[in-house]
Specification:
Blueprint lengths: L11 H65 L2 E3 L4 E3 L3 H40 L1 H32 L2 H6 L1 H10 L9 H13 L1
Antiparallel strand pairs: 1-2
Length: 206
């Protein structure tokens, strides 16, 4: 035989859900922080390597400038010797130094250019993450999760208020109220303040 009354499960599961939502928000924020730190470390490492390439390029350019200056000085000191059929000094070694220095500069220029492209791509990836995934997680952790927790707390509070209502007494008195209403039609069930409170709690719980 079914028992009279209203039966509502306790709020323990709702409190557990509330805790899970809070922990999930914290975990996502923690993951986002680690991802952000990792991306910044990668960018810092790439920028240090790019600085290294820039230094090497500067050194190569300086050697080229010195080699070109030495060649220019050598050429300025050349004298044509008919007996030898050419200019003296020949400046061959200076020319070799200039050629070698130019090749070195071209190599470091290519490496530096490639490094710039890699750093640029990394910066764009970080920017895309910050405006996409990071912004989404930040909004969830800082805005949506607190709102969800607050709404759930409100629901739990209202449910607890309903559970605190003595449903057994209220339903037990229904028969006597109905009996009185049959004798006096003006005495309506809806005028009982306890049912007014119950209906109010039910409406507010939605």
């Amino acid at each position: 035989m079914a028992k009279n009354g209203a039966y509502i499960l306790d709020t323990e599961l709702l409190n557990q859900l509330n805790d899970e939502i809070k922990q999930t928000g914290e975990k996502m924020a923690n993951i986002d922080s680690h991802v952000g730190d990792y991306l910044r470390r990668v960018l810092d490492a790439l920028e240090r390597q790019l600085d290294f390439l820039r230094e090497k390029l500067d050194e190569a350019e300086a050697r080229l400038s010195e080699a070109e200056s030495a060649l220019s000085s050598c050429q300025a000191s050349q004298v044509f010797i008919p007996e030898m059929g050419g200019y003296v000094p020949t400046c061959i070694s200076e020319e070799v130094e200039v050629s070698s220095a130019r090749e070195e500069v071209m190599e470091w220029q290519q490496k530096y250019s490639e490094g710039q492209q890699i750093v640029g791509e990394c910066q764009r990836e970080i920017s895309d993450y910050e405006s996409g995934g990071h912004a989404l997680i930040e909004n969830m952790a800082n805005n949506q999760t607190p709102k969800a927790i607050e709404q759930l707390r409100i629901g739990i509070s209202k449910l607890e208020n309903i559970l605190e209502t003595n449903m057994g007494i209220a339903l037990h008195d229904t028969a006597s109220v109905a009996k009185e209403a049959s004798v006096d039609p003006d005495k309506s069930l809806v005028k009982d303040s306890r049912f007014d409170l119950f209906r109010k709690n039910i409406r507010n719980a939605h």
